[in-house]
Amino acid sequence: MAQTRFAPDRGLTSRMVMTMFFIGLLYVVVVGVLVVLLKGAWVVIMLLAGGMFIAQFWFSDRIAAFSMGAREVTPEQAPELHGAVDRLCALADMPKPRVAIADSDLPNAFATGRNQKNSMVCATTGLLRRLEPEELEGVLAHELSHVAHRDVVVMTIASFLGVLAGIITRVALWSGVGRNSRDQNAAIAVLIVTAVSAVVYAISFLLTRLLSRYRELSADRAAAILTGRPSSLASALTKITGQMARIPTRDLRKVEPFNAFFFAPAFSKEHFSRLLSSHPTLEQRLDQLGRIAAQLGRS
């Protein structure tokens, strides 16, 4: 990654490499199965998959912004938010990303982008209204570390294969392959494609969840060290998590698909599962910040 003053994390780098290796391996398996079983349709599926991959990679930031209702703002429209981002970028010695605001009472923030020069950091109106300036800087530093470490790109690519597996299953079913009862081979092909897609989706889902939990701890650590104020980040975490319980369940459900990109997870109670969570627990995050505060105090 491009050099910044964010603390490097070899553990995160190794996990990203391993995730991309296994995702690539799964991709090869899927393509191989399709080539063997769907000889007549594999070209169309390959073109569709390639087109979707390119579109998601190049337009992931716009897709996320549109889905969350984010709008890019100028320094004149949001001087405090821009000022905080300016200070952090100067402190981290990194290019300034585009700055956006999402009109939502959900207190949260996220970052997207395929590299530091094509990135965006977004805060919701609910977050801006609830946090103190130092708390907001802690959250923004957390999101900027995602951009600096490039784990946003890895998450985008890793999550793509799960989406692709679901689409392949639908294409196989909608194409009518195997509807002719006399063509038993085609029927078996549909079953195999569906089974392989389901397995690929499950594996890619677990891989992205494992990486996502670690990258959140890494971003907390990098933000706390950069700002030198782990207590402010801990305060923001506690405040946001507490406020999340007051958000209507229907609003939480709408944004749950984007949890992997959020600063804090938006979970409705009936859907919460630690195993499937995209984030570590609040206790884990606060415990790590407490240790960092003690280390900074000793130094």
Automatic annotation (TrEMBL):
It is a multi-pass membrane protein. Its EC number is 3.4.24.-. Keywords: Cell membrane, Hydrolase, Membrane, Metal-binding, Metalloprotease, Protease, Transmembrane, Transmembrane helix, Zinc. The keyword Transport does not apply. It is an enzyme of class 3 (hydrolase). It is found in: Cell membrane. The active site is at 143. One of its GO terms (molecular function) is metallopeptidase activity. Its main location: membrane. InterPro entries: HtpX_protease, Pept_M48_protease_HtpX, Peptidase_M48. The keyword Repeat does not apply. The chain crosses the membrane at residues 12-35, 41-59, 152-174, 186-207. Binds 1 zinc ion per subunit. Its cofactor is Zn(2+). It holds the Pfam family Peptidase_M48. Zn(2+) binds at residues 142, 146, 216. Belongs to the peptidase M48B family. HAMAP family: Pept_M48_protease_HtpX (MF_00188). NCBIfam families: PRK02391.1. This is Protease HtpX homolog.
